[in-house]
Amino acid sequence: MKRLSLPTLLLLLLLPLSHSFAGDFDKGFMAYEAGNYAAALNEFTSLAEQGEVRAQFLLAQMYRRAQGVIEDDKESVKWYRLAAEQGIVTAQNWLGFVYQNGNGVVKDDREAARWFRLASEQGLANAQNNLGFAYKNGDGVIQDNVYAHMWFNVAASSGYEDAKKNGYRLARKMTREQIAIAQDLARECIQKNHKNC
């Protein structure tokens, strides 16, 4: 059984839940954790169709990981999108990956960058690192080492260790002036709570 990562588990436990959904979600989540995917699928499908965001996210995970269902990228994308549109940062980041790789959708780097940006603006360090790569490679955005370095710095400041390495590697291709500008932009971005960076 694949367990949820600690950040994903915390996200799910901290999300608000209407009282009418609480018992059914708990029942589904306990079944999911126990590896009883058929029971979890039954509970989550009903809740997800009613708009319960945690159930939508977990249903997306189940279809992506083939947990109690046949792996179905399109069905996974459907549920990720619904959760992402309700502001679930992890779902937004996953949609970025989905569009970046063309899993269940037509590959679209511009759409991937859009979802990475939405998750980045909410402070998700992984998405900030992903957006850094988008700028580094010119995937869905205009290639710009300064903005790539800025996003790597922002992600590193949020504790994402790989972003530090990514920033160091990129800095070898940049001038001191470009690095200084990127660092200033990163400080501004952090002060603005990652909005409009």
What does this protein structure show overall?
With about 200 residues, the chain is an all-alpha fold. It folds into two domains: about 20-85; about 90-195, Tetratricopeptide repeat domain (Serine Threonine Protein Phosphatase 5, Tetratricopeptide repeat, Alpha Horseshoe). Helix content is about 70%, strand content about 0%. The chain is built from eleven helices and no strands. The relative contact order is 0.08. Residues about 10-15 have low confidence and may be disordered.
Which stretches of 5+ consecutive residues score pLDDT under 50? Answer: 9-14
What share of the residues lie within helices? over 70%
Structural class, from secondary structure content?
Answer: mainly alpha
Q: How many structural domains can be distinguished in the coordinates?
A: 2
Categorize the overall geometry.
Answer: elongated
Annotated CATH topology of the largest domain: Serine Threonine Protein Phosphatase 5, Tetratricopeptide repeat
Counting DSSP H or I runs of 4 or more residues, the number of helices is 11
Strand content: under 5%
Number of strands: 0
CATH superfamily of the largest domain: Tetratricopeptide repeat domain
The largest sheet is: none
For the record, what CATH class of the largest domain applies? Mainly Alpha
Radius of gyration: 18 Å
Order of helices and strands: HHHHHHHHHHH
Gross CATH architecture of the largest domain = Alpha Horseshoe
The end-to-end span amounts to 39 Å
Instruction: Give the mean pLDDT.
Output: 90
